[in-house]
């Protein structure tokens, strides 16, 4: 009985360590332009997740942050797939600091890499945040 328990616990530890390494690779990324900083951190991109979550923080000292991220964000899978957010959970439009979680349906099968693009009004090109998943 003990060898099986030991093997089971070892398997759990390997799984947890691998998950931690995966999370560490998907660290926060920042983009600053036009007086606005956007920081994005993947929260949960597991294949079994109910949603793929990205923590988004916007900061500025000039003007209000009126972005509607559900309308202006797109997730790309590297093979031509484009995915729109299903929900924003966080601060509403306005102010100099906004923070929340942008949610997408999980991409299946899990792509080798993903790119989150956020198009801001008045900016010629979208902000781009990329992560390797495999």
Structure, explained:
By secondary structure, the chain is an alpha+beta fold. It is 21% helix and 40% strand. It is built from 2 helices and 9 strands, in the order αβββαββββββ. The strands form 2 sheets. Strands 1-2-3-7-6 form a 5-stranded antiparallel beta sheet, with no helix packed on it. A hairpin with a 7-residue loop joins strand 2 (36-44) and strand 3 (52-60). The protein is globular, with a radius of gyration of 18 Å. The N and C termini lie far apart (36 Å). The model is unreliable at 5-24 (pLDDT under 50).
Total E-strand runs: 9
Low-pLDDT runs: 5-24
Relative helix content = 10-25%
Strand content: 35-45%
Gross morphology: globular
Please state the average pLDDT score. Answer: 85
Q: Output the strand order for the largest sheet.
A: 1-2-3-7-6
Query: What is the overall number of helices?
Result: 2
User: What kind of assembly state do the chains in view correspond to?
Assistant: single chain
Mind describing the biggest β-sheet?
Answer: 5 strands, antiparallel
Rg for CA atoms:
18 Å
Offer a quick outline of the entry.
With 134 residues, the protein is an alpha+beta fold. 21% of the residues lie in helices and 40% in strands. The relative contact order is 0.19.
């Amino acid at each position: 009985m003990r060898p099986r328990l030991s093997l089971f616990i070892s398997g759990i530890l390997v799984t947890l360590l691998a998950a931690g390494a995966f999370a560490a690779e998907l660290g926060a990324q920042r983009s600053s332009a036009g007086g606005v900083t956007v920081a994005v951190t993947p929260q949960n991109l597991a294949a079994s997740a109910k949603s793929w979550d990205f923590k988004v923080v916007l900061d500025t000292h000039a003007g209000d942050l009126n972005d509607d991220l559900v309308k202006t964000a797109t997730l790309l899978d590297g093979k031509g797939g484009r995915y729109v957010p299903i929900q924003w959970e966080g601060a509403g439009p306005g102010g100099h600091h906004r923070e929340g979680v942008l949610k997408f349906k999980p991409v299946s099968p899990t792509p080798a890499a993903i790119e989150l693009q956020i198009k801001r009004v008045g900016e010629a090109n979208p902000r781009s945040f990329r992560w390797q998943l495999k």
